[in-house]
Design brief:
250 residues; alpha/beta; Rossmann fold; Helicase, Ruva Protein, domain 3
């Protein structure tokens, strides 16, 4: 049995609710106005309900579930993009997340400026970024476009640069959300090789992907969410098998 280090990610009783503001019909809106605006036309959606889990340093975990199960919401809470409505989320060490393509990029700045901006956000000093800059650009395959404003980049170019910056920060915890679905196949293979390299170095990986074969090769553990609750937590092949069964029944 693999021995892991201290807790890298801790989620205790995590709850997250979203308010979906929309009117179902004109008649409903008129009734609401006639009644003096009493009641609430908005609809509440409980994305996560009392989620508790621990991920230890060096673990590789696949967060799995059907669409709407709460996977991306949980990853955003762990990354700090969102805050929980209840419970607690704690992380240890530097956390780098590929949660959304180009998230954190300033569209009016060049690729070069965004490397320095994102590197600083992820905790790197200017000298560290200077030392790694050529390697970041080389891995990203952006080349001559590094001094172009990123608003002119394709989604694939966003991905390559964002991924390259994130892996060069040498994070202790690496969060990945469906990011490998974007970009061409050769770069996807390059990303997967880099992720496996991080895993071999003992980095903590938390991965959301619909590519069940891929997560089965990268991750050792699987956590299955359904309607915002953890319903299974165990060896990745067993959890993938359970999800496949539920997908067929859905």
């Amino acid at each position: 049995m693999t021995s892991f280090g201290p807790v890298a990610i801790s989620c205790v009783g995590v709850r997250k609710q979203f308010v979906l503001r929309h009117t179902r019909s004109l008649k409903e809106a008129l009734v609401w106005l006639v009644k003096g605006r009493k009641g609430d036309l908005s609809k509440k959606f409980l994305a996560l309900n009392d989620v508790s889990l621990e991920v230890r340093k060096g673990e590789t975990v696949a967060l799995l579930g059907l669409n709407g199960s709460g996977k991306s919401t949980l990853l955003k809470l762990i990354s700090g993009v969102l805050q929980p409505d209840g419970g607690s989320v704690r992380t240890r060490g530097r956390v780098a997340g590929l949660i959304e393509v180009g998230a954190g990029f300033h569209h009016d700045l060049s690729g070069r400026d965004n490397v320095y901006l994102n590197g600083a956000i992820l905790g790197m000093s200017e000298k560290q970024i200077d030392d790694m800059f050529e390697s970041i650009v080389e891995f990203s395959e952006i080349g001559e476009f590094i001094d172009t404003e990123v608003k002119f980049y394709s989604s694939g170019m966003y991905l390559r640069l964002a991924f390259s910056i994130a892996v060069h920060t040498d994070p202790e915890v690496f969060l990945i959300d469906e990011i490998l679905a974007v970009g061409d196949e050769p770069f996807q293979r390059k990303c997967i090789a880099k992720i496996k390299e991080l895993a071999e170095k003992g980095k903590t990986l938390f991965v959301v992907s619909h590519d069940l074969d891929l997560v089965s090769t990268i991750c050792e553990r699987g956590v299955l969410l359904e309607h915002g609750k953890v319903i299974m937590d165990g060896e990745v092949h067993e959890v993938v098998g359970e999800l496949r069964g539920r997908s067929l029944d859905a």
